[in-house]
Amino acid sequence: MRRGLALLAAALLPFAAMGQSVSLSGSLGASKALLLIDGQPHTVSVGATVKGVTLTRMGDGEAEVVVNGRASLLRLGAAPAAVVGAGATSSSGSQIVLPVGQGGHFTANGSINGKPVRFMVDTGATVVAMSASEANRLGLDWRRGERAVSSTAGGLVPVYQVMLQSVRIGDVEVFNVEAVVMQAEMPFTLLGNSFLGRFSMRRDGDTMRLERR
């Protein structure tokens, strides 16, 4: 299973970078701001979210926005602020320790977008990979993702590319993680290199340590 389902090779199309820039260009009363998100104007009300940017507070010539749980203060006329993009990690944890499990595989309980998931480490997988049934359980709108083809031991299979808002194991959380959804049933969600590549990996006997780069 590990090699048959997880050889997500170079046939996958590259994902676009998810970095954003946000600036405050004006206000409409005390509860609406005119934000430039990646150069495009958007009128955003306090509490609303546009393009992944949530306006949480308005002040005198300033506005506070939150992206992926991180707050940024924007000032009228100031240079655009860079907000959290692909590859950003939280500051809460820096190391994941995984004991070897049945069959010599490393598995872990974690979460995707805040919902519990059982992972299996697969260094041969290009990205995180999951079954369609698991994606449905997580509430992912995967059918709207970009279609691609993956090469497996059983031949070429269609997959859907998606971007996960967050992947968490223990107290370590990574944002904007590339993933694919495939029709085959899988007992685990495969933890591929779109997550693992953010860490230095070291195996000590029956223990794997992932340390944030």
Which key phrases capture this entry?
3 helices, 213 residues, four-stranded antiparallel beta sheet, seven-stranded mixed beta sheet
Low-confidence stretches: 1-18, 84-92
Average pLDDT number: 80
What structural class is derived from the secondary structure elements? mainly beta
H/E topology pattern:
HEEEEEEEEEEEEHEEEEHEE
Oligomer: single chain
Largest sheet: 7 strands, mixed
Characterise this structure:
The chain has helices at 2-6, 132-137, 193-196, and strands spanning 20-27, 32-37, 40-45, 49-50, 53-59, 62-67, 70-75, 81-83, 95-99, 107-112, 115-121, 128-131, 146-152, 155-169, 172-182, 189-191, 199-204, 207-212. 31% of the residues are buried. By secondary structure, it is mainly β. The strands form 4 sheets. Strands 10, 11, 12, 13, 14, 15 and 16 form a 7-stranded mixed beta sheet that branches. A 4-stranded antiparallel beta sheet has the order 3-2-1-8, with no helix packed on it. Helix content is 7%, strand content 54%. The protein contains 3 helices and 18 strands.
